[in-house]
Amino acid sequence: MFELKLEKNWYDAIYRRSSVRKFAAAPDKEQLDRLGVLCRKASWQGVTLRMFKGPGLKGAIRGTDVYAVIVAKRGTPMELEGYMGEALVLEATAMGLGTCWLGAGFYPDVIHRNVNLQNDEAVHCVIALGKVDALPEFKPKRRDVQAVCGLTEGQLGELGAWQKDAVLAARLAPSAINQQPWKIAADKASVSILERPVLYGKFAPLDRGICMLHAAVGALHAGREAAFKKVDGGYAMRA
Ligand SMILES: Cc1cc2nc3c(=O)[nH]c(=O)nc-3n(C[C@H](O)[C@H](O)[C@H](O)COP(=O)(O)O)c2cc1C
């Protein structure tokens, strides 16, 4: 499941990315072309990523009118939307662009018209993309490692390098109103991204998909390619 060729430079992007809401300009033609390539790669099994330039974003986003729309066919696990969308976010970050996931910050009627949305399709999120003078300082507010996975960094390291890099990268995933609706279980053979109940759960499966991509990119950094399998309450990765 979740087939996508991961890029090694996405790991550094995880440790540089923060949401950007004020941009310097829209991406240029060359950048749009490169983002378009990624959108095609990340469109898989019921999820399609499409780039647009023009109206559609609400006023909280300034300085760019470029965004990607994630279109999902009915019945597609929402985790896949997060997984593929975050691939675009990390690619854009690696290119030096700013990004912001938006679950509320867009006009659905405009977006639905743009993508010619069909009855068996839905748009849950779009991603704003644009140039920045500099990426914001990297100061992510996240739950402690031990609160997230029940282990210290040292204990994670004893399990293995890939488990440690996977969990630490997964912990940094962005999520709707930063709720981090996941708990992570790590052992000698696997790292699992599991449900954690939160107050506002509309985007929780999508958030966990983002977290899964971070985990896979972390494992790759330690030299392991990961495969995800559905398990009770989430997805387990073996590398
Ligand atoms: C699924 C999803 C939906 C989001 N929706 C919005 C939104 O509508 N408006 C907004 O300003 N930020 C939105 N965000 C950005 C989050 O608020 C942000 O990722 C989180 O607070 C963590 O901060 P960071 O991305 O700077 O690390 C969304 C993020 C995700 C993952």
Identify the notable features of this structure and list them briefly.
2 domains; 8 strands; alpha+beta; NADH Oxidase; 4-stranded antiparallel sheet; 239 residues; binds flavin mononucleotide
SSE series = HHEEHEHEHHHEEHEE
The count of helical stretches stands at 8
Which parts are unreliable, with pLDDT below 50 for 5 consecutive residues or more?
none
Main sheet: strand order:
1-2-4-3
Instruction: Work out the helicity level.
Output: 25-40%
Portion in strands: 15-25%
Mean of residue pLDDT values: 97
Number of domains: 2
Indicate the radius of gyration in whole angstroms.
17 Å
Secondary-structure map:
Layout: H1 10-14, H2 29-41, E1 47-53, E2 66-73, H3 78-94, E3 98-102, H4 108-115, E4 121-130, H5 145-149, H6 153-159, H7 161-171, E5 182-186, E6 190-195, H8 204-221, E7 227-231, E8 234-238
Helix pairs in contact: 3-8, 6-7, 7-8
The structure holds flavin mononucleotide.
Flavin mononucleotide is lined by residues 18-19, 21, 60, 100-105, 125, 140, 174-178, 203, 206-207, 210.
